[in-house]
Fold C2 domain-containing protein.
Amino acid sequence: MQKTHGFLTSLRYRLSRGRSRERLNRKSPTDFPGNESTDYAADYSSENSSSVTPGQTPKHRSSTMSSSDTTKKEALTPSTDTYGNEFDSGNMNIPQGAIDLLHAEELQRKREASLRQHVFFQLRIHLRKGVNLIAMDKNGSSDPYVKFKLGSQLLYKSRTIHRDLNPEWDETFTLHIEDPFQPIVIKVFDYDWGLQDDFMGSAKLDLTTLDLERPQDLSIKLEDPSKPNRNLGEIKMTISLWPRTQEDKEMHFQRSSKVGESSKRLKSQIWSSVVTILLVEGKNMTNEADGSPIYEPYIKFRLGNEKYKSKTSYRARWLEQFDFHLFDEDQILEVGLWSKNSVLGRCTIDLSKLPRETTHAIWQQFEDHHGEVFINLTISGTTALETISDLTAYRENPKELEAIRSRYKLIRTVQKLRDVGHLTVKVYGASGLAAADIGGKSDPFCVLELDNARLQTQTEYKTLTPNWNKIFTFNIKDITSALEITVYDEDRDHKVEFLGKVIIPLLRIRSGVKHWYALKDKKLFNRAKGNNPQILLEMTVVYNPIRAAVRVFQPKEERLVYQEPKFKRQVFLHNVNRLKDMIMDIINVGRYINGCLEWESPVRSIIALCIWVCCCLWAGLEIIPVAIVLVILKNWFVRWITGSAYSYLDDHYDEVSDDDEDENQEIEQKKSIKERLQAIQEVSQTVQNTIGNIASLAERIKNTLNFTVPGITWLVALLTLLAAFGLRYLPIRGLLIAWGCWKFTKRLIRPNAIPNNELLDILSRVPDDDHMIMYRELPPYMGIETSKRDTRKKFKIT
């Protein structure tokens, strides 16, 4: 460059001297020597050829060639050579503006030459504020934020300043630049609660106009090609460009490659947690003008770039679940109340202030509306280590365990009657899962649900034997509840695929024992797909028995999210068989009594006659609860002798095959028939569910007496004995009057009490035979013999 500069300086000196000599010797304007023109042409051609040096890139070559054109112009301006001699161009009458322009071009050329000497840069930007931005909302304001882009790549996005045309961001960030000759595009948007944000203007930042290592204050005016004559405001910022070495460039790209590999491993999802939102209901959903109900209201959620919309509901009760991925920079959940494509109210929830790994029941008030919305929100699935749910960093504290046990001692029964117990679940890992992806692997994660509380682990990618190593805690409100554990496979579009499930009643948990539990299919009747899939758990349950007994007499907590059962031929036949079995049991009892009356067996008939006479002479109504207690004792004795009271289930239930493929084929072939029989199908669905409910109630009564749930059975036995003593020593009329007074005055004493039947509430805690099959524990995978076992064979309950 120094040699080129010296050559061009001498060339300008020769050119200036030649023109002075020409003006002195010339006699007419047209008197030009031909050899002078030839010399000039040769000089220009040599200048052009000397401006291109070997090894330059095309971008550098074009820039250097353009700088040579600038050099031609500079030959007409006052200048000095390398020896300090000035060139006089006063006789050429060049305007001062042209001279300033040539000086600016010379300065720009020097900046570009300086930029080419470095291979990497750091651009430090202090985004200060915006001035007189355009209003995009109806209220005459905007919610602006700024994006910095390089080509199609987003470099940085600022935070959103709500309702301000002169926002002050005051954000400082650093960008890594490899090519300073490519401009950075600055775009300003108005944040909108709709599906797309409004464009407010853009500008280009030319890095070649910056001086290296010197901060510069810039005021960049915004432009919009569709609004060329409108003032869109400006953005004020402080920018400095700092050169970096080749080592800094290599280190940057090395870190970028690691982040890229990590992103690829996580399927381009670098989220920190999963936010599960259960939208339950709303209240005060009325128009503020006339107080009329809002027409088909619905809720919109937005967290970062993820958006969800609920269904419309006339009664403002949705019961929908949504899953969001929580990023570190997006911690504000936005909730909007909509009707007829117009927003009625908005509110925000700061997720950074909510504790992780617990379910929060939140009534949220809207800012612009008097209505409220009720949601269950859980932040779980944390990917970061050293969290409260990380089992590898967890150390048991004996003092904390003792504090938990002391909280549920009998001497503290009257304290917090609704706090029944505490459940701790350690999820270690799983094995033998089915391959859900094309590569023969899965991306499994585990979901734990207790009533309406829902937690989940992080996702382990590309494995069939995940190790989650998480510990979760639940507050037990009902000891008769069951813990549901489901393993899913995560897909790229955030959908899930079922891998296995197991349901464990709290009363059947073996506290402090690490145990493998076999995963079942969706129907929970048999093993799930895979190589004998199972999950390793360790659970600890601590509860107060008196509080648990009191809670049994209250209505069971409603499960908010459930799938409405549809009509299926297999389910219909299954429920008919269940009802048939119970009816046959009643018929057999009637035949037995009829056999006694018919003297089919003389010995049996004589014994029955003696019992009947004795009961009529000396017994009263107390014989009924006594008989129930005798049945309970008989079943307890059988259970004590055999060691299990559930073996009879294997005689009645076989594996239920899935007819989904056959049904799908029938649907494809008989669509017109389905449309014609739609009304009949609805009636059949009602009959199916009614039969199922009747069969379930009958089975619950039977299982109440046979120690299916030992705590409930002993409680029923105690109550029946108390009833027997009451019926024996208290007048029946007084009992009936007391019972009637209680039923009639219950509404007066407790106006907000839920209408219920104590007997049905107790029976609702006892599982029917279908639930018992779901609760039964399959034997864990122990070796080759178990793996060769036919999966369609019956399993005995242990």
In short: The first strand starts at residue 120 and ends at 131.
